[in-house]
Amino acid sequence: MAKRLLIAMLFLASVVAAAAEESEPPLSLDDTASQHFDLGVKYFRARQWDAARAEFQVSFELSKRPDLLHNLSMTAELQGRVAEAIEFERRFLDTAKLDDSERAEAAKRISQLQGKLEGPARPRPSKASLAVGGVGLALGASMLIASIGTGSYALGLKNDLESRPITRAELDQGTALGRTLQSATIALAVVGGAVTVGSITILSLARRRAREQLH
Length: 215
Hints:
Mean pLDDT: 80
Radius of gyration: 42 Å
CATH class of the largest domain: Mainly Alpha
CATH architecture of the largest domain: Alpha Horseshoe
Structural class: mainly alpha
């Protein structure tokens, strides 16, 4: 009798459990997506970015709600995956129904993320400083090259005068020309060197000011 009673009780319990399962409707895709979304929020608040992103991803695949793309962008950024965060935010901007202010905010965030991806802006000297420094370097280099030319010509003239018989007039004329060339060589070398050094100084100061303005 006891054995039969136990079997009856087990059968009754299984019938009750089956009836309970039949009375509880299965979860819809939206309900399942909502559960994964809630888990994603829970993990996000706990700063568990990988788990949060996984739950948001499942929720998006089930519901196809564009708003979840913004959540995925946020978690991707916190994971350090800036390029992926930009892609999610762009998809959010393209597919979600946003008003003008929301669209502007999403576009601003994309711009900020691109700034992170590209890194901090490098300091750039002003255009005026670059122009002055560049012209000065070119001018200084030209004068130094010219000084080499005049010096070489003066040396060649001296060798020519010493290598052949010449008249007194030719000697005086050659000597005067040689002195002129020598003076021109010295002047071109001194002025060209000063212009070159000054131009380099201008460019260096311009770069320093640009770095100071950046900070």
